[in-house]
From TrEMBL:
Domain of life assignment: Bacteria
Pfam families assigned to the protein according to its UniProt record, in alphabetical order: RF-1
Keywords: Methylation
Protein's UniProt keywords contain Transcription regulation: no
Protein's name according to its UniProt entry: Class I peptide chain release factor
Record's keyword annotation contains Nucleus: no
Lineage: Bacteria, Pseudomonadati, Planctomycetota, Candidatus Brocadiia, Candidatus Brocadiales
Length: 95
């Protein structure tokens, strides 16, 4: 019997074929086996597709929205009230 051994240096994979008496057939078998093993190594898991936004992203978006509202909101003055009282009144009534 003639044995064929193949070694793939980059990955360290070794393959042996001894089924046939023919060296050519064994070489073909060994190359096919090596191909299969290399294909198995190259199969990567698909990256998960995010179906909805994670909680931390939602919190960050809300935080940014609140900050933008504070920056763009014109300050109203309420006669006879302090600034904090006026803001509380404004948020409760939506004036």
């Amino acid at each position: 019997m003639s044995c064929v051994r193949l070694y793939h240096k980059p990955t360290g994979i070794r393959v042996v074929a001894t089924e046939s008496r023919s060296q050519i057939k064994n070489r073909e078998l060994a190359f096919k086996r090596l191909q299969v093993k290399l294909m198995e190594l190259n199969i990567e898991e698909k990256e998960r597709i995010l179906t909805r936004k994670p909680r931390y992203v939602k919190e960050q978006i809300l935080k940014n929205k609140k900050n933008d509202l504070k920056k763009n909101r014109p300050e109203k003055e309420f006669p006879g009230m302090t600034r904090n009282e006026g803001l509380k009144f404004f948020f409760k009534t939506g004036v």
